[in-house]
Amino acid sequence: MTGRLEGKVVIITGATSGIGEATAHCFAAQGAKLLLAGRTVEKGMALASQLGDCAQFQRADVRHEADIRVLVDVAVERFGRLDCMFNNAGASASAPLDDVTEQDLSDGMQLLVGSALFGIKHAARVMKLQPSGGSIINNASIAAHRIGQGGIVYSIAKAAVAHLTRLTAVELGPHHIRVNAISPGAIATPIFWGGSERANTLSTEENERKLAKLEQNLAKATPLPRTGYAMDIANAALFLASDEGSFVNGHDLVVDGGRIWQFHERSR
Q1: Which of 154, 183, 188, 241 is catalytic?
Q2: Which long-range contacts (CB under 8 A, 24 or more apart) does 62-66 make?
Q3: Is residue 195 part of a domain?
Q4: Domain hosting residue 149, numbered range
């Protein structure tokens, strides 16, 4: 089925790689108009060019509220409205408890929680003025629900994102604004070898080798015998962004091939 986002205007943060890039392709194919946000200008411009007239790239560092405010303003100026905000940008924070620093905490919370908080704030100020409201999607993680899925700062930040989703879903629901989260499991993206910044320093061949090895390892770590892919998350986001998800609010959709339950079973 095509056209599930026909005419809808969507902002995707962290759009230049991994889940964000896959979501951009998915949403464009379904008729959305896209404002793509990221810090890597060359990749962002290339992606927007590839997607065509439906897409525009805007450089943004979502650690700063001012950049998020500009994103929302640019989307409205270019397309006239805002129907969906996908707060996707993030990075791993892997320091163990013994080594974590004040800077680790500050950086992790600002990037992972602050970006979602201010993304919701500024998307909502536009969506409240629209009779149809809108859909806000936050990228959380199964690290919010179980141990062993990331460093301590990453895990507590993602738990905060999950609860932020619930709080704002209740507050914004009366304005017909739905706020939901997606909690990916082990998804094969460059986050496993340092994120997009690290991947941008490597050759295409080296990134492909790392991805192939990662896919083999992750396929062994879930009840479903395959790795998760960025498009698996993009398809979940498509449901939440579309009218098909119009009565889903305050939900954290776990997309992990059953990994979260495998852990619980082994804990007994």
Answers
A1: 154
A2: 62/13, 62/14, 62/37, 62/87, 62/89, 62/111, 62/114, 62/115, 62/118, 62/119, 63/107, 63/110, 63/111, 63/114, 63/115, 65/114, 65/118, 65/121, 65/122
A3: no
A4: 9-189+228-267
Q: Is 229 a catalytic residue?
A: no
Q: Treating both helix axes as pointing N-terminal to C-terminal, what angle do 41-51 and 18-29 enclose, rounded to 10 degrees?
A: 20
Q: Is residue 199 part of a domain?
A: no
Establish if 3 belongs to a structural domain.
no
Q: What is the pLDDT of residues 106-134, one digit of tens each?
A: 999 999 999 999 999 999 999 999 999 99
The pTM assigned to this predicted structure is 0.91
The residues pairing with 228 across neighbouring beta strands, listed in sequence order, are 187
Tell me whether residue 112 is in a domain.
Answer: yes
Tens-digit pLDDT profile for residues 9-66: 999 999 999 999 999 999 999 999 999 999 999 999 999 999 999 999 999 999 999 9
**CATH code, 159:** 3.40.50.720
Tell me: pLDDT of 75 over 60. Answer: yes
Amino acid letter, 246: S
The total of structural domains in the chain comes to 1
